[in-house]
Write a structure and sequence with these properties.
Blueprint lengths: L1 E3 L7 E4 L23 E5 L1 E11 L7 H12 L5 E9 L2 H5 L24 H14 L5 E6 L8 E4 L4 H8 L4 E4 L7 H5 L5 E5 L6 H16 L13 E10 L6 E2 L7 E3 L16 E5 L8 E3 L7 H4 E3 L3 E4 L4 E3 L5 H6 L3 E7 L4
Parallel strand pairs: 2-3, 4-5, 4-6, 6-9, 7-8, 8-10, 11-12
Antiparallel strand pairs: 1-2, 3-5, 7-9, 10-14, 10-18, 12-13, 13-16, 15-16, 17-18
Length: about 350
Amino acid sequence: MGNIAISNRVRYDEIEDVPDELLEIKDAKELYKVFPNPTLMYLKGVKKEPLFVTVLLHGNEDTGLFAIQKILKKYQNKRLPRSLIVFFGNIEAAKYGMRHLDNQPDYNRVWEGGELSNTPEGVMMQEILHKVVSKKPFASVDIHNNTGKNPFYACINKLEKEFIYLASLFSKTIVFFESPKGVQSLAMAKYCPAVTIECGKPKQEASYQAAAEYIDTLLHLSAFPDTLRHIEYNIFHTVARVEIPKEFSFSYSNKDADIFLLEQLEEKNFTLLPKDTLCALIKPGSNARFYAFDDEHNDRFDEFFYTKENALYLKKELMPSMITLDEKVIEQDCLCYLMEELKVEV
């Protein structure tokens, strides 16, 4: 294992073999014992152009790690059908079961094109991106979990047939988004078909298995089809990222908070909500509200929500995704996304 250390970026390691200990890990919190730093692993396969996979960009999302573990076990004594490059991301946060530590930026907001790309973590990602791109990747997959109840779905950043096909192999439910910037899939989309797969909640064997089967399918894929004529998919476009302004307190349990959130809405992810759906209760006398940022970071709250008699309602028919009950994640990231169905012809 060769260590690399440069003062203006996070230290990471590069390896060209599979440590035996990696195949025995039972909990992502133990990965630091195998990889003390973020690690880029290169493995040669029959097809030269590699599949690039990122795991644990969020330290509390373990599906990617155990999906890769399943793949490595399957091909332990035989050659991979395609070369594979795996980046094991925020190992330090994984040690504590956190999305990211309080002194760290989000590892999926620091890639090329993001506002945080000039951080030490972002400099590391830029170097990793250049090394991966130099290998002429066949495709890129970023593996994630949700903290809320969501079906398996895939996200893309370009409405091109290769991207749609890549996503459809994981789920016929596809989300197209262009914001937030600085995510892995947006950075890689400039160089090859790229996708983010959202694999439900962490610590679920069904999630590990689904992600592993998907990676195995891509390792065997020789080329992308010329047409999507016989491919089933539904594409939804993210129109707003819903955040809670820092100046307002919020809670699912404390009714004295500025914004009292409703637990039952978690059950409505990927469900079309009608106009006038109750979204939250507002503390009497408070001017609390949400932000609803579009791709250009314009606040479109007045287009999507309205307040009436100490309550906040949906102003138009929309579909939420990633509503979570995890208040720490809401604080670090967002409450949810709002989507509309998109008709695409490619």
